[in-house]
Automatic annotation (TrEMBL):
One of its GO terms (molecular function) is diacylglycerol O-acyltransferase activity. This is Putative diacylglycerol O-acyltransferase tgs1. It holds the Pfam family WS_DGAT_C. Residues 151-193 form the O-acyltransferase WSD1-like N-terminal domain. Residues 377-440 form the O-acyltransferase WSD1 C-terminal domain.
Length: 476
């Protein structure tokens, strides 16, 4: 009897006052920020469910930029009704999406699909359709640059009819509705495999308004963010402005798989090998000095990602890749195996390797503030992507290419796998390659030559190890 009494006295006299002292300032902080939100941003508050937070950690960091643009090109005609049927079947009716239905800021689809009327698609092209993807890129910048303002739809879908009986399905989403991981998972479920990212709008600069809304349950986190932002002159290092060139090509999947089998590697490693040899030969042909190595970064999904409050980022594997080295692929993959994940998570290579052995594994977008040598960034990307960030030399060691049109640092290469091939898009700053014609030569000549050489070497290796290749060891 005496011990429980002492226990309760201890709780009432010591624990409760401390509990009240800690929670009261947090409650006042949260109340103030919510009042500010209701008074100054009714457009956002009105669009969210009452059970949701008014502002999220994504809004605080500004990591997802203002809008994310992704697209897929489908064979045959498509209408909003067919997309809605596909969405309902592939997403809404699946049990593992049920918990997300009340969280529209994490999961774009359910709430907005039921409550917002979708506008009819805009016809950018005349009768007969757009003739090429280049023309599609020409009509997107104005839409991308709109960003978000009161009265702007928080998400939208546009259908653009292309030549050859194809339809480009372009989705635009504001980051308040969908964080990167959930959004990309949705797209993977929603549409066919083979997504190719087009554009994202420019990153948002630091502002006191977003800092004030930041993590209002934890003011000290906002203070830390403000300190880091002051040190870095913004939430992200400034990229080098100026034009960038984009080029597209297709690689036969048969050749890519043959190289991957022969090297026992992941798809990004194959792409790294192609880029290593192609860049080296290209620089030799132009007389431009080639860097000895390039830092490559692979966005990697964090498996079994915890709840939003526990972990809000996806890791990055990074490695140095020498240019023109016969062992470039091996050195690159060795570097990846021992790479630590950006932030606090040191996840073993074995977790990620199975994901990259799939034709089109899970998509990824986020990183946290990261280590000192990795800038915070958001990359709406596809697996198989690698990003050479050091091509411009030491002055951009801490910069990162964004995918906004005409605004890039260094180079970004994305390879999307589909049924019988792979779609490669590469965007390079004008600081590296001075003309679109030179980029076309790099892609159409040197990259294809390098892949063909790697493919022939892989065939020779497979033919030499044919017997060993088919042996299967069975152990009880």
């Amino acid at each position: 009897m005496f011990i429980p009494l002492v226990f309760w006295i201890f709780i009432i006299i010591l624990v409760l006052p401390v509990y009240v002292l800690v929670l009261t300032p947090l409650a006042v902080w949260r109340l103030c920020v919510n009042l500010i939100a209701y008074l100054t941003r009714p457009d956002i508050v009105a669009s969210l469910d009452s059970r949701d937070l008014v502002f999220t950690g994504d809004d605080y960091y500004g990591r997802a930029r203002k809008s994310v643009i992704s697209s897929i090109i489908l064979n045959g005609p498509a209408t909003l009704n067919t997309l809605k049927e596909r969405f309902t079947k592939n997403v809404l009716d699946k049990p593992h999406f049920f918990k997300m239905r009340s969280r529209p800021y994490v999961f774009m689809g359910y709430w907005f699909w039921r409550h917002v009327e979708i506008q009819e698609e805009e016809q950018f092209a005349e009768v007969g359709g757009i003739l090429s993807e280049d023309e599609l890129n020409e009509v997107l910048p104005s839409w991308v640059s709109e960003g978000f303002s009161p009265g702007t739809p928080l998400w939208n879908i546009k259908l653009i009819h292309l030549a050859g009986n194809r339809t480009a399905v372009v989705l635009k989403i504001h980051h308040i509705i969908g964080d990167g991981v959930s959004f990309m998972s949705l797209l993977e479920e929603f549409c066919d495999k083979g997504w190719s990212n087009l554009q994202t709008s420019p990153v948002r600069p630091f502002s006191f308004a977003h800092w004030a809304y930041a993590w209002y349950n934890f003011p000290w986190t906002a203070l830390k963010a403000f300190r880091l932002a002051r040190i870095r002159k913004g939430f992200r290092p400034k990229a080098i402005g100026g034009p960038a060139f984009t080029c597209y090509t297709n690689f036969p999947m048969e050749k890519l798989r043959a190289v991957r089998r022969a090297q026992k590697c992941i798809f990004p490693t194959v792409l790294a090998g192609v880029l290593s040899g192609a860049f080296y030969k290209f620089f030799q042909s132009t007389g431009k000095k080639s860097p000895a190595s390039v830092r490559m970064i692979i966005p990697t999904p964090y498996p079994n990602r915890p709840d939003k409050g526990t972990c809000n980022h996806v890791g990055w594997l990074h490695s140095e890749m020498p240019l023109g080295d016969p062992l470039a692929m091996k050195k690159f993959e060795d570097g990846v195996r021992y790479s630590y994940i950006s932030g606090l998570h040191g996840i073993m290579w074995q977790i990620f390797k199975p994901m990259y052995l799939l034709p089109a594994p899970s998509l990824s977008v986020y990183t946290d503030w990261g280590e000192k040598n990795l800038p915070p960034a958001v990359l709406t990307s596809i697996p198989g992507s690698i990003t050479p960030v050091y091509l411009l030399g030491q002055e951009v060691d801490h910069s990162y290419p964004t995918l906004s049109l005409g605004y890039t640092t260094g180079c970004n290469a994305c390879m999307t796998t589909y049924n019988d091939g792979a779609y490669l898009s590469i965007r390079i700053s004008k600081e590296i390659i001075s003309s679109k014609e030179m980029l076309d030569v790099l892609v159409s000549k040197y990259m294809h030559e390098e892949l063909e050489l790697m493919y022939q070497n892989a065939l020779n290796k497979e033919n030499g190890n044919a017997v060993e290749h088919i042996q299967i060891n069975v152990s009880n």
